[in-house]
Amino acid sequence: MRDKILSILKAIQPEGDFEESDDFFEDELIDSMGIMAVITMMEQSFSISISPEDIVAGNFQNITCIEKMLESYLV
């Protein structure tokens, strides 16, 4: 799952060092428009529909946060 998430993030921001970042927003790797693109790509890639309640900065802060959020949809 991690590789798929990283692939999606790299598609949005190819030069971003997402693996080393603890906070994508603080490190300016992604912004609100980027998050919307990430959500769309994740919904398509994982065949899920992310609830509006889950679209909060904390769920997209880093790869680990994204993994945890996605795991709740894939159980």
Key features of this structure:
globular; 0% strand; 75 residues; mainly alpha; 49% helix
Describe the structure.
It is a single chain. Helix 1 (about 1-10) packs across helix 2 (about 30-45). The longest helix has 15 residues, at about 30-45. The two termini are about 15 Å apart. About 50% of the residues lie in helices and about 0% in strands. The relative contact order is 0.19. The model has no long low-confidence stretch (mean pLDDT about 95). By secondary structure, the chain is mainly alpha-helical.
Strand content: under 5%
Question: What's the overall average pLDDT, rounded?
Answer: 96
The end-to-end distance, rounded to whole angstroms, is 13 Å
Q: Give the tally of β-strands.
A: 0
User: How is the main sheet built?
Assistant: none
Give me the Rg, rounded.
11 Å
Helix and strand composition category: mainly alpha
The percentage helix is 40-55%
Number of helices: 3
User: What is the 3D form?
Assistant: globular
Low-pLDDT sequence parts: none
Give helix and strand order, one letter per element, not per position: HHH
Characterize this entry briefly:
The protein has 75 residues and is mainly α.
Structural topology:
Elements: H1 2-12, H2 32-46, H3 63-73
